[in-house]
Amino acid sequence: MLCGDTVLFYHSQKELAVVGVMQVAREAYPDPTSADPKWLTCDFIPVKTFAQPVPLDKIKTDVRLMSLALIHQPRLAVMSVTNEQFQVIVGKSEKLP
User: In what order do the strands lie in the sheet with 6-11?
Assistant: First the structure.
């Protein structure tokens, strides 16, 4: 992730849902909460909290999102998404009841 990149914020523990959009404010650096030098973190600026989170089960049912790594490995910390996938997920947050 590079400074200025727009990213989706996904709750990977209990909720299993995309809950908003953030922007990268600081690129990867060693995670101060871990002794493992392989663990990195980034700083983010919140951009938008979804009024309706987009649950993983709704993502799994959309054929446009079938290639997302999230569908096959739901606890991933970081993954790439295409602009189209990004727009589909953001759109789902606006259409959910």
Answer: 6-11, 17-30, 40-55
